[in-house]
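pinned: reference chain
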Amino acid sequence: MHCLDRACDQKGLTVAERRKAAEIITALASDLAAEMDDDELKAIYNKYSGSDFDSEEVEAANEMKFMFEAMTGVDLGDDLEGLSPDEFLKRAQLRMQEQQASLENAQQGQEAQPHTRKKSAKQLAKEALQKAEEQEVHQSIREVYRKLVSALHPDRETDPQERERKTVLMQRVNQAYDKKNLLLLLELQLELEHIDQTTINNLTESRLKYFTKILKEQLAELEQEIFYTEDMFKAQFAITPFSQLHPNTLMRQLEADIVDEALTINDIKSDLLIMQDIKKIKVWLKKFPSRRKSDLWDCHF
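pinned: its structure tokens
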């Protein structure tokens, strides 16, 4: 962009060539200024576009605000001037979350009001069963927690090093209990060799049932977390959403990307050499319409 800008200030380009160079400079300066928020880039854009970059940004932001508010009914406020697209989206997301929280609070307030209609015996029995199951789940986790606390309490340890080790382990136990993480509590039991075949044999069938219930719920949460993590990774690196992730596949793709970047660098170096000579620039501009737009915007310069 700077090379073309300097070329336009020199003699040797025709009116048509200057017009074509100006179009290229305007497009490049627009993308770069939006990304970098640089005053020099904005000045170059204004010079060749015949417009004002900041004014266009304000107008575009107002249009986005109007469309968003019309579609969602969420008021974004009036202090949006100067926000980047990312900042605008964050503001919109925050306002939507605030509105959603307000609606949920209102709904909870309505639910908290006493119902005039009496619940049926079937409904009461179902609620009682759910409450009993929740109590049993809590008791299952608490039982494991209490055994670990009894074995690890650092105040009962006289050896300084062992007391320090138990203090660290107690922190892990408390964190797992606060999060109701039965899996981690059981892992700590295994780590401390507090689970043997006799302990397993003494577990009642009902306790095993609730252990299984809790662990299944934790498994579902972990699978969901893996799904979202992989989905974000694929989006970040432009990987097909339904493709299977594997280290070998990713390494092959990374190697191919490295080759593509090396070719891009060579193209950039070649273009920069061309841009040092006004005669070569004239030839380049003449050939420009036959080149792919993506080559210009993404690879060259």
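why pinned: The two ends are 7 Å apart (CA to CA). The mean pLDDT is 79.
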